[in-house]
Design goal:
The complex is a heterodimer of chains A (327) and B (474). Chain A has 14 helices and eight strands. Chain A is of the alpha/beta class. In chain A, strand 4 (238-243), helix 13 (255-266) and strand 5 (271-273) form a beta-alpha-beta unit. The longest helix of chain A has 32 residues, at 9-40. In chain B, 70% of the residues lie in helices and 0% in strands. The two termini of chain B are 16 Å apart. Chain B contains 17 helices and no strands. Chain B is mostly helical. The chains are: A alpha/beta (327), B mainly alpha (474). Chains A and B meet through helix 2 and helix 10 of A and helix 1, helix 8, helix 16 and helix 17 of B.
Chain lengths: 327, 474
C-alpha cells in the first residue's frame, strides 16, 4: 500500500507543495521572529524592559526579587540612603518563585550584588498552573541564556519544539513590544529603578481574602526556592528572605511561609516574617489593596528593612542569624 | 486528547499516515485503536462506559431488526434506557439529588441519598446521542443493523467527533467506514484548510476572549454593567469560536482521511431571527432534537397550543442536555420562549404591523440581525453564569448600565483583531457568494498568503495554555 501511495500523483503533488510551503513558512517565521527579537530587546519601558534590564544590564549592589509585592514594597530611596548602596527592584507582577529563581540565576552568572532580598508571599508554593504559564515572559531569553532554560522547560514537555518557531517566544507580545519601544508605560505607570509607587489608600471596606490553608505544597516551586538560596550562597551574596506586610489578619501562619522559613533556616539565611507587622497590617491607610502597600507605607517599610539589614551587617556574621518575626 | 495540543498534531500525522499506508481491510481497526487511545488520554477507565453502551446498542440494533411488533419496541426501549441511564447516573444524579436535598431541607428533613463523587465522562452527551440515533433509525427502518462489531464501535467512537460532535446519523457515517478511501489531493488540502481555520477560531479568538470573559463572569459582583455587557458579547463569540472551531477541526481531520461529517455551524450570528439562528447553530444537535423529539411529539401537525408546547419543551430538554444546572434549563427555556413568541408575533401581529414600517429590506435585515444577536446574547448570560443568582445579578447590572468599563487593553486588542478576521470571512461568505473567500481563493498566491497569515497570527497572538474546549463538559 505504501508503494501505491507513493505512486499516487496527488500524494506526490501534496508532498512537493507541503515542502515548499514549509520552507516559505519557516523563512517567514525567521524574518518576523528576527524583527520581533530586535524590537523586543530595544524596549524603553514596560515590564519586559525591566526584565531585560534585570537579566542583561543590572549591576546594582542591592537587588530585590519577587512578585508585585516585591515591586510595590521595596523603595530604592530608603535602601540607597540607609545602606549607601545602589539598588534595583527586579520584582514582576504576577510572577513568583519560578520566575525569581530563573532571573536570579541569569543575573548571578553575570553580576554578583552584595545584597539580595527575596520577597516571599503566602501560598508561594501552592500549585497554580498560571505560575508555570506566566514563565512565557522568559521565552525571549531562552536562546541566549541557558541558565533559565530548566525553568522555562517546566511550562510543558514540548516547549523546546515550540521554540523551533522564531515567532513563538514573542507570542502575545506584539502590542507590548510596540508600546515598550515608546515611553508609553513609563508615562502610564512611572517606575523608579524597578519599584512601582502607588499612591492610593484603601478607602472602601476592603474585601478581605479568604485564606485557604488546606493546599498541597508544590515540590517543584519549593525546590526552585531552595535553588535560589543555594545560588546566592554560592555567589557569595548576602541573602535576606522577607515576607512583607499583608492587610489581612491571618488566623494561623501560611504553610508556604512556614516551609520557606524552615528551608531558609537549614541554609542559615535570615528570614524575616513581617506579614503581620502591627506597624503596617490592618491599617487601611498603609495599603492600596489588601496585598499591597502604598508608596508612603512602602517607604517606611523599606526604611525599616534597610535599618535591619544595616544592623545585622554591623553585628557580624548574618549566616548564623536566626529567623525572626517582624513584630 | 485535546485538539489544541502538540500531542494531537503528532497523533493526527501518525494516524492519517498509517491510514493511507494500511490496506483498506485493516483501516477500521487502526481507527478504532486510535479512537480508544484518543479517548483514554482523558480518563482511561471511562472507556468501559463507552464499551457498555456500545455492546447494548450493537445487540439492540440486531434484535430490533430481527424482531417485530411490541418486541421490536421493547429492544428500542432497552437501548434508550441504557443510554439515558448512563447519562442520568453520570450527569444528572447529583443535580437531582441536590434539588431533592433542597426540597427536603425546606420541609425540615435530611436527604438520606448519598452523593456520587464522580467526574463527568468527556463528551458523554455526544456519543450517547449518536448511539441512540442508531437504534432509533434501525427501529424506524431507515438503517440496517450493523453486524460488524468493530465497525459499529467505530461509528460511536470515531475520534474526530467522539467528544464534541458533530452528532452523526448512521445513514451518513456507517457506510463510509466500508468505503475505500484513496489519497485525494483536493480533499486532503480542503480538510487541512478547515483544520487551520478551526485552530485560528479556537486559539486566536475563543481562548483570547475567554480571558476577559472569565475575569468578568468569575467575579460579577466586582464588575460594572458595561463590563458585564461587553463580557457577554465576547462570550457569544467565545463559545461560537470554541465550538465551531472544534467542529471545523473535527470535520477537517475526518475529511483528510476521506470522511464527510455533517456541517455543524453556518455563520449563526448573521441570522435575522432566533429560528434562523437555530438552523445555523449546532446543526447536528438541533436536527437531532427535531428528528427524534420534536417530530416524535407531533411537531407542528398538532393543535396550535400543543405545537407551541412541543417547541418549548424541546428547547427545555436541549437546555438540560447541555448541563445539569438550572442555568442551562433557563437558557433552554428562554430560547424556547423566543421561538414561541416569534410564532405568536407572526400569527397575530406581523400581518397587521410589519409592512407598515417603510424600511428598505437591507436595513430591516440589519436591524433584525442586531435584535437576534441581542436576544441570543441575553440567553448566553444564563448559559455562562456560574449560578442562577449570578445570572440575575449580571442581568440587573447590565440593565442599570452603571459604572466604568474594565479595559484590558491587551486582551481586547488581540480579541478584536481576531474578531475582525472572523467577521470579514463570514460577511464575505454570506453576502458575496459569487467569489471565494481569501482562504479558498482561486489565486494560489492569495490562498497561500492567507494560510501563512493565519499560521503567523496563531503563533503571534494565539493562546497556548492548552485550555479545554467548552463543549467537552457536555
Amino acid at each position: 500500500m505504501l508503494s501505491q501511495l507513493i505512486a499516487n500523483n496527488g500524494f506526490r503533488k501534496f508532498l512537493q507543495r507541503l515542502l515548499i510551503f514549509l520552507l516559505v513558512l519557516f523563512a517567514l517565521d525567521f524574518v518576523v521572529g528576527s524583527v520581533l527579537r530586535k524590537l523586543y530587546f530595544t524596549q524603553k519601558s514596560g515590564a519586559d524592559y525591566e526584565t531585560i534590564y534585570a537579566i542583561e544590564k543590572s549591576n546594582e549592589e542591592v537587588m530585590v526579587f519577587g512578585s508585585s509585592r516585591a515591586r510595590n514594597h521595596y523603595h530604592p530611596e530608603a535602601f540607597e540612603k540607609e545602606l549607601g548602596l545602589s539598588f534595583y527592584n527586579a520584582g514582576r507582577n504576577g510572577n513568583f518563585i519560578l520566575y525569581s529563581n530563573a532571573v536570579a540565576q541569569a543575573v548571578l552568572k553575570r553580576h554578583q550584588p552584595r545584597i539580595v532580598i527575596l520577597d516571599v508571599v503566602g501560598h508561594e508554593f501552592e500549585y497554580y498552573a498560571p505560575n508555570y504559564e506566566k514563565l512565557s515572559v522568559l521565552l525571549p531569553f531562552y536562546r541566549n541564556h541557558p541558565e533559565i532554560r530548566s525553568t522555562v522547560n517546566l511550562r510543558g514537555p514540548f516547549e523546546k519544539l515550540k521554540l523551533g518557531f522564531q515567532v513563538y517566544p514573542f507570542n502575545s507580545m506584539l502590542l507590548s513590544v510596540g508600546l515598550g519601544n515608546t515611553e508609553f508605560y513609563n508615562k502610564k505607570d512611572p517606575v523608579i529603578k524597578g519599584y512601582s509607587p502607588i499612591n492610593r489608600e484603601l478607602t472602601e471596606q476592603p474585601i478581605v481574602d479568604t485564606v485557604n490553608l488546606h493546599y498541597e505544597i508544590d515540590s517543584v516551586q519549593a525546590k526552585s526556592y531552595e535553588e535560589f538560596i543555594i545560588a546566592c550562597k554560592q555567589a557569595g551574596v548576602q541573602l535576606y528572605i522577607i515576607c512583607s506586610p499583608y492587610f489581612n489578619k491571618l488566623p494561623v501562619r501560611d504553610k508556604s511561609i512556614v516551609l520557606a522559613e524552615q528551608i531558609a533556616e537549614q541554609h542559615g539565611v535570615p528570614f524575616w516574617d513581617h506579614s503581620q507587622d502591627p506597624e503596617f497590617s490592618w491599617n487601611p491607610k498603609n495599603f492600596y489593596d489588601v496585598r499591597h502597600l502604598n508608596e508612603p507605607a512602602s517607604l517606611r517599610f523599606s526604611k525599616k528593612i534597610a535599618e535591619k539589614i544595616k544592623a545585622s551587617q554591623q553585628s557580624g556574621d548574618t549566616d548564623s542569624q536566626p529567623s525572626e518575626s517582624g513584630n | 486528547m485535546l485538539f489544541n495540543s502538540i500531542e494531537f498534531v503528532f497523533f493526527f500525522i501518525i494516524v492519517t499516515s498509517l491510514y493511507f499506508i494500511l490496506p483498506h481491510k485493516y483501516r477500521w481497526f487502526l481507527l478504532l485503536v486510535a479512537s480508544c487511545y484518543f479517548y483514554m488520554a482523558f480518563v482511561p477507565i471511562y472507556i468501559l462506559i463507552l464499551f457498555f453502551t456500545i455492546v447494548i446498542d450493537y445487540f439492540a440494533g440486531i434484535w430490533i431488526e430481527e424482531a417485530s411488533g411490541k418486541k421490536k419496541k421493547r429492544f428500542l426501549v432497552l437501548s434508550l434506557v441504557a443510554n439515558i441511564g448512563v447519562l442520568a447516573v453520570f450527569k444528572y444524579y447529583n443535580f437531582l439529588n441536590d434539588n431533592l436535598t433542597y426540597l427536603l431541607h425546606g420541609a425540615g428533613w435530611e436527604n438520606p441519598i448519598p452523593y456520587l463523587s464522580i467526574l463527568l465522562p468527556i463528551g458523554l452527551s455526544f456519543h450517547t446521542f449518536q448511539a441512540m440515533s442508531y437504534t432509533i433509525e434501525v427501529y424506524r427502518g431507515h438503517q440496517k443493523a450493523e453486524r460488524h462489531f468493530g465497525i459499529y464501535s467505530l461509528y460511536v467512537m470515531f475520534y474526530p467527533q467522539l467528544v464534541a460532535g458533530p452528532i452523526e446519523r448512521p445513514q451518513n457515517l456507517l457506510w463510509q467506514f466500508r468505503k475505500e478511501h484513496y489519497f485525494d489531493y483536493d480533499r486532503v488540502v480542503s480538510g487541512l484548510r478547515l483544520m487551520l481555520w478551526g485552530f485560528f477560531m479556537k486559539l486566536v479568538i475563543a481562548d483570547r476572549l475567554a480571558i476577559y470573559v472569565n475575569a468578568a463572569y468569575g467575579n460579577p459582583d466586582k464588575h460594572d454593567g458595561l463590563t458585564l455587557a461587553v463580557a457577554t458579547m465576547f462570550f457569544a463569540f467565545q463559545i461560537y469560536c470554541d465550538f465551531a472551531g472544534y467542529s471545523n477541526i473535527a470535520i477537517g481531520a475526518a475529511r483528510v482521511m476521506g470522511f464527510d461529517l455533517m456541517k455543524n455551524f453556518n455563520r449563526p450570528y448573521l441570522s435575522s431571527s432566533v429560528s434562523e439562528f437555530w438552523s445555523r447553530w449546532h446543526i447536528s444537535l438541533s436536527t437531532w432534537f427535531k428528528d427524534y423529539l420534536y417530530i416524535s411529539m407531533g411537531g407542528n401537525r398538532v393543535p396550535i397550543p400543543r405545537w407551541y408546547f412541543n417547541l418549548f419543551f424541546t428547547f427545555l430538554v436541549s437546555g438540560l442536555w447541555h448541563g445539569a444546572n438550572w442555568t442551562y434549563i433557563i437558557w433552554g427555556a428562554l430560547n424556547g420562549a423566543y421561538l414561541v413568541l416569534a410564532l405568536i408575533r407572526q400569527r397575530y401581529i406581523d400581518k397587521h404591523v410589519d409592512n407598515k414600517i417603510p424600511l428598505p429590506a437591507s436595513v430591516r435585515k440589519f436591524i433584525n440581525i442586531g435584535i437576534t444577536f441581542v436576544l441570543i446574547c441575553f440567553s448566553w448570560i444564563f448559559f455562562r453564569a456560574e449560578s442562577v443568582q449570578d445570572a440575575f445579578l449580571i442581568v440587573g447590572k447590565i440593565f442599570k448600565m452603571e459604572g466604568q468599563l474594565f479595559i484590558d487593553f491587551t486582551q481586547m486588542f488581540y480579541g478584536f483583531l481576531g474578531l475582525a478576521v472572523l467577521m470579514g470571512r463570514e460577511i464575505k461568505q454570506e453576502y458575496f457568494k459569487d467569489s471565494n473567500s481569501l482562504l479558498e481563493s482561486a489565486n494560489p498566491v492569495v490562498r497561500y498568503a492567507t494560510y501563512m497569515f493565519l499560521i503567523v497570527m496563531i503563533l503571534l497572538i494565539g493562546v497556548f495554555d492548552g485550555s479545554q474546549f467548552i463543549y467537552f463538559q457536555f
